[in-house]
Amino acid sequence: MGKGIRYSGEFKQEAVNQVVVHGYSVSEVADRLGISSKTLYGWVKKLSKPTVKRLCCSTESSGLLKLFRQIYSFEACPTT
């Protein structure tokens, strides 16, 4: 079985934006771009939620990420 087509991250994000930001239906965007609705639903699920990885790339959120790390390391410490 062969591998499917690989789409760039930019292509995926633009497709998701058409659904999430601009309000087009998943089926409409998928038909227009020549991809399956199932594929686009997967991208929407994965790319429409902010992740820690995305937060660390922003200079505005670097302080917030540092705070998250401090909280996480504090919670991970056993109490004595």
Automatic annotation (TrEMBL):
One family name in Pfam for this protein: HTH_Tnp_1
GO molecular function terms noted in the UniProt entry: sequence-specific DNA binding; transposase activity
GO BP terms, alphabetized: DNA transposition
Gene3D superfamilies: Homeodomain-like (1.10.10.60)
Coiled-coil region: none
Protein name per the record: Transposase
Originating species: Zooshikella ganghwensis
